[in-house]
Write a structure and sequence with these properties.
- It is built from 17 helices and 2 strands.
- The protein folds into 2 domains: 9-170, Up-down Bundle (Four Helix Bundle (Hemerythrin (Met), subunit A)), CATH 1.20.120.160; 182-367, Hypothetical protein af1432 (Orthogonal Bundle), CATH 1.10.3210.10.
- The longest helix has 26 residues, at 20-45.
- It has helices at residues 13-16, 20-45, 51-69, 73-91, 98-121, 126-142, 149-158, 182-194, 203-217, 224-233, 243-246, 254-260, 263-274, 278-286, 307-321, 334-342, 351-367, and strands at residues 9-10, 124-125.
- 33% of the residues are buried.
- A two-stranded antiparallel ribbon has the order 1-2.
């Protein structure tokens, strides 16, 4: 039973009895959701559009569902109250207030602290949890007729937080005209792409880490710097694809697939225009080619596909399978991903590289 005890602590025996790997995975997902909330608040405070309201709701709803799944009843109940408060802004995105964003950041910080305390000590502060619950309940009542900045400022103060200062938004750092080095700029482009979808959280960094490990395992068939450039840039063309296609839930039509495939030549041509990255451009051009010649854009076969492109193909598929997606509200395990990749050797992937990638994932699992 998830209830407070006489010393005003609460515990969640069902959650604490789970395998450590499951708890660690849940903590990682929680941090990702909270980081997404923070990113959306920052964007909204800089006049971001209603799509950030939707992204934030998706992230909080995902966190609430995860808490319910692992038996964190007290935190699930808290998140339900917070979600109900936020639903006012979701229904009327034009009424978003910076004070609401500050409250959400403070609330998610407190939930993370309660979770950390629960894992470390086996119980957490029920007084703190109830205080946040009571504040949310009061907010629900006081925002029935619309969002009010004063109400949220009072809630922030009640939780011991700093009241939001609108003047801070006006003190933006001056933007200077400067040219960063190529790889730094490429990384920035990749991070902007990842920020377009909650389902791409840290995707580019994960891709680079895995493709570097595979390149090392294969004896470095691709130049490390050229491969890094290709890793950052291989999906950047997606940012120029219509959002209705990029974020579509469900199957794409043939015409939509054709438009989506344009991200490959776009990214490779961008690399060519940087100058000095022709090898990386070829890797990007080849990263959707299939080993049997049935891929795109050129139907290149086997070892005619650039080694960097063959490695990116494996890693890109692995990251896609192990990431939650809009058309599949969960992410598959590392073993499921490896199984799917192994099932497509000779057809989609270079068999020798898949063998090496199995070792890379095995080492990754051992570290975890």
């Amino acid at each position: 039973m998830n209830s407070p005890n006489s010393s005003e602590k609460f515990s969640c025996p069902e959650f604490l009895a789970m395998e450590r790997t499951i708890i660690d995975d849940f903590v990682d997902c929680t941090r990702e959701c909270c980081a997404e909330v923070e990113a959306c608040v920052k964007a909204l405070n800089k006049q971001g559009g209603p799509e950030y309201i939707h992204r934030m709701f998706r992230s909080m709803h995902s966190l609430k569902g995860n808490c319910q799944m692992v038996g964190l009843g007290p935190l699930n109940a808290l998140l339900h109250r917070i979600e109900e408060v936020f639903s006012r802004a979701r229904a009327h995105p034009d009424q978003y207030l910076p004070e609401l964003g500050e409250f959400l950041l403070l609330a998610t910080d407190e939930i993370e602290e309660l979770l950390s305390e629960l894992i470390a000590k086996g119980e957490a502060d029920e007084v703190k949890r109830k205080r946040l619950s009571d504040v949310c309940e009061a907010l629900q009542k006081n925002t029935i007729n619309g969002l009010n900045a004063a109400v949220f400022r009072e809630a922030i103060t009640s939780l011991g937080g700093r009241v939001f200062d609108k003047n801070l938004l006006q003190k933006n750092a001056k933007v200077e005209l400067s040219i960063p080095d190529d790889l730094t700029f490429m990384r920035t482009l990749a991070e902007h792409l990842d920020a377009l979808s909650i389902f791409r959280k840290n995707r580019s960094e994960q891709t680079l880490e895995l493709v570097n490990s595979l390149n090392q395992a294969m004896g470095f068939p691709a130049d490390k710097k050229q491969l890094e450039a290709a890793s950052w840039m291989h999906d950047v063309g997606m940012s120029l694809i219509p959002q209705a296609i990029f974020n579509k839930e469900g199957a794409l039509s043939k015409e939509e697939q054709k438009i989506l495939q344009e991200h490959v030549p776009i990214a490779s041509q961008l690399l060519m225009r940087f100058g000095g990255w022709d090898d990386a451009a070829r890797m990007v051009l080849d990263h959707h080619e299939f080993f049997d010649g049935s891929g795109y854009p050129n139907g290149t076969v086997g070892h005619e596909i650039h080694p960097g492109g063959r490695m990116l193909a494996i890693v890109d598929t692995f990251c896609s399978i192990t990431t939650e997606r809009s058309d599949r509200g969960y992410k598959k395990s590392l073993m499921q991903a490896v199984s799917e990749i192994n099932a497509n050797i000779h057809v989609q992937f270079d068999p020798d590289m898949v063998t090496a990638f199995n070792d890379v994932v095995r080492n990754l699992m051992m570290k975890q």
